[in-house]
Amino acid sequence: MELLKAVILGIIEGLTEFLPVSSTGHMILVADLLNFVGERETVFEVVVQFGAVMAVFVLYFKRFISFLRFDFSKGSGLNIIHLILGMIPASIIGYLLHGFIKERLFSTTTVLIALVAGGLLMIAADRWKERTRVTAETIDDITYKQAFGIGCFQILALWSGFSRSGSTISGGIFLGTSQKAAADFTFILSVPMMLGASGVDLIQSRDVLSASDAPLFITGLIASFVVALIAVTTFINVIKRVKLTWFAYYRFVIAALFLAYYFI
């Protein structure tokens, strides 16, 4: 049964990590439904994120290799400076408020609130898009200022349930990027951010890890990797056409269903 739960949660992580619906929020809510809770289970949720990270790294491998050229000339497109600027805001806030975030922003109630709040931000971004001019049509058009600004919006993703992709794609739209350019940047930015955050969590939770848990963790990791490969490829194509508002409506429905389940 534990391996089955690992597969289910791995699928949920891979499917939702790069959709603007909050993978962490879904993981917390579903893990609670499956009674998959505790210190070890919390570490498991961190481990399966590596599967999703690996999927993005594979899909954007050539792009990551291009960063090694360290070409910062005008017109060179996206480079490692964009990534660093995008990482700075959330990295600093996450480090300074790590204890508060883990203690106060990972509960069922805060996740449900964040699902609604993130949905409202996405609806606002869609409305903004209709009356603003796009200055960055592709990921290579994104400026350093826009990269840093998107990084500032990523701070919202420290609140579980808000969604990294939802906050950063919305931020990109507010800052003048196309929806697809913001999505591409979000996926690439997620790799160093998730590796850093998950790495810190694993180091801090090393006393909880046990060799006997390896089958459970590996099962979830593989499920997350495979599903994330499919999800990212699909989402990049869908995001060109689908408004963020539809994802916001989904978030509202999920929040309402879980609210009814827990509190009614």
TrEMBL record:
<feature type="transmembrane region" description="Helical">
    <location>
        <begin position="42"/>
        <end position="60"/>
    </location>
</feature>
<dbReference type="Pfam" id="PF02673">
    <property type="entry name" value="BacA"/>
</dbReference>
<dbReference type="GO" id="GO:0071555">
    <property type="term" value="P:cell wall organization"/>
</dbReference>
<keyword id="KW-0812">Transmembrane</keyword>
<feature type="transmembrane region" description="Helical">
    <location>
        <begin position="216"/>
        <end position="239"/>
    </location>
</feature>
<keyword id="KW-0573">Peptidoglycan synthesis</keyword>
<keyword id="KW-0961">Cell wall biogenesis/degradation</keyword>
<keyword id="KW-1133">Transmembrane helix</keyword>
<comment type="function">
    <text>Catalyzes the dephosphorylation of undecaprenyl diphosphate (UPP). Confers resistance to bacitracin.</text>
</comment>
<feature type="transmembrane region" description="Helical">
    <location>
        <begin position="182"/>
        <end position="204"/>
    </location>
</feature>
<dbReference type="GO" id="GO:0009252">
    <property type="term" value="P:peptidoglycan biosynthetic process"/>
</dbReference>
<dbReference type="GO" id="GO:0050380">
    <property type="term" value="F:undecaprenyl-diphosphatase activity"/>
</dbReference>
<protein>
    <recommendedName>
        <fullName>Undecaprenyl-diphosphatase</fullName>
        <ecNumber>3.6.1.27</ecNumber>
    </recommendedName>
</protein>
<dbReference type="GO" id="GO:0008360">
    <property type="term" value="P:regulation of cell shape"/>
</dbReference>
<feature type="transmembrane region" description="Helical">
    <location>
        <begin position="6"/>
        <end position="30"/>
    </location>
</feature>
<dbReference type="GO" id="GO:0005886">
    <property type="term" value="C:plasma membrane"/>
</dbReference>
<keyword id="KW-0378">Hydrolase</keyword>
<keyword id="KW-0133">Cell shape</keyword>
<dbReference type="GO" id="GO:0046677">
    <property type="term" value="P:response to antibiotic"/>
</dbReference>
<feature type="transmembrane region" description="Helical">
    <location>
        <begin position="105"/>
        <end position="124"/>
    </location>
</feature>
<feature type="transmembrane region" description="Helical">
    <location>
        <begin position="80"/>
        <end position="98"/>
    </location>
</feature>
<dbReference type="InterPro" id="IPR003824">
    <property type="entry name" value="UppP"/>
</dbReference>
<keyword id="KW-0472">Membrane</keyword>
<comment type="similarity">
    <text>Belongs to the UppP family.</text>
</comment>
<feature type="transmembrane region" description="Helical">
    <location>
        <begin position="246"/>
        <end position="263"/>
    </location>
</feature>
<keyword id="KW-1003">Cell membrane</keyword>
<keyword id="KW-0046">Antibiotic resistance</keyword>
